[in-house]
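@channel sequence for tomorrow's demo:
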Amino acid sequence: MDNFKDRYQKQVLPALAEELGSVNKMAVPRVVKVIVNMGVAADSNNKEALDRAKESLFLITGQKPKVNQAKKSISGFSLRAGAPIGLSVTLRKKFLSDFLDKLFHLVLPQVKDFKGLSLASFDGRGNYTIGLKENTLFPELDYDKIDRPRGLEITIVTNTDSDDQSRKLLEAMGMPFEKKVSEQKTGF
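structure tokens (generated this afternoon):
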């Protein structure tokens, strides 16, 4: 079976170029990077829990996460400047392809009552953000070895400013969007 990148080059790219009426393959929208974030503010004082969160994000993405620190203190949130509040990884090239393939075909279908991703999550500039409540959906994690499930935010960044072109690209790559429900009768 071809890998995700080969399918993109041989099937998605030509079909998308034809659909968008583009003669030049370089003008077709592409995924530039994927950013995976995990909030760890609740574990900022617990070094062991922070290390476990780093390890789980490393296993999910295949890259060492960067620790994001608070820029200023906020007493209402018991937050001090310099305290770790998040982990982030930016995926490009092979890591990007492998991660998207896994996300579209293994992880998202496991979500309970999954009916597709919302079309409302585009940001108006062609980028799409997904929020997952649990990192335990990823096959690399052993549920017995993690201390607790953590949420993830996944942002897919494209090189187009059009949400419509970005949607067409992601659909062609296999992203499962929700089906539009035609007019429903309310019964009134």
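heads up for whoever presents: The first strand starts at residue 31 and ends at 39.
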